[in-house]
Amino acid sequence: MRATGGLPALAVAALIWGAASAAATELVVVEARGVSLKQGDAVDDAQPLKLLDGQMVTLVADDGSILTLRGPYDQAPKGGNGGVDVAGALAALATGKAQNVAGVVRSANTEVHLPDPWLVDVSHAGVACVRPGERPVLWRASESGGTLTMMPADRSWRAQTDWPAGSPTLQAPSNFPIKDGRTYLADFGGKPVAVTLTQIPPKVTNPRMQAAWMLEKGCVAQAEALLKTVR
Fold first, then answer.
1. For the domain 107-228, what is the CATH code?
2. What is the rounded CA–CA span in Å between residue 144 and residue 138?
3. Is the dihedral of CA 197, 202, 207, 208 positive or negative?
4. Cα gap 43→183, rounded to integer Å
5. Cβ distance 73 to 51 under 8 Å?
6. Binning pLDDT at 50, 70 and 90, where does residue 175 land?
């Protein structure tokens, strides 16, 4: 290969390869049906993705767009191309202009406004998104004190801890296990609330991408709080 513009041939090749690599980005699988892909897998948006009739995959891109692809499909799933923008989806839910956006049905906890995106709301039933390897910080829409009882839905174990008055947050007890997809009961004052925990995959690191993941999983208040930090 000849040098171009005074650059060595290897340098020219490196520039070309680097430009091609920069153009391709990874999409992360949120949900898949009928295919070998699974939740948390990465998909190169520059490579064709083939889906047969009846197959489906939902992907999130680093710009916060959500793509739901259904077969028959055979092309590169470019991020932002025909996807749903997470900010627009949240706005539609907040204003009531859409009852079902990006797979999320409008419900009572859509109206919850968290002071931090990584809090686990234990005062409303629903889904909470957590980061892997971290002990969750619990949140209540109240500052009254008392005793919190935590247990899985099958009630196979029980953990109790004091919740000090005047604090709306509390770090989960050290013996509180985090298992993806498991539902827990948070009982404060004899009123158990069912909360399902779902872990965000390590590959979902960009804040807008995380917000899109949260929205798809039903962590609406968390997605809203996270987007506020990147605007």
1. 2.60.40
2. 14
3. negative
4. 29
5. yes
6. confident
Query: One-letter amino acid identity for 187?
Result: D
Q: What is the 3-state secondary structure (H, E, C) of 178-217?
A: CCCCCEEEEEECCCEEEEEEEECCCCCCCHHHHHHHHHHH
Residue labelled with tokens 């799933």: 77
Listed range (22-26, 28-32, 158-162, 219-223) with the worst mean pLDDT: 22-26
Confidence class of residue 80 from pLDDT cuts 50, 70 and 90? low
Entry pTM = 0.81
- Distance in angstroms (rounded) separating the CA atoms of residues 105 and 95: 13
Distance CA 41, CA 32 (A): 10
Mean pLDDT of 70-97: 79
Instruction: Say how far apart CA 60 and CA 221 lie, in whole Å.
Output: 18
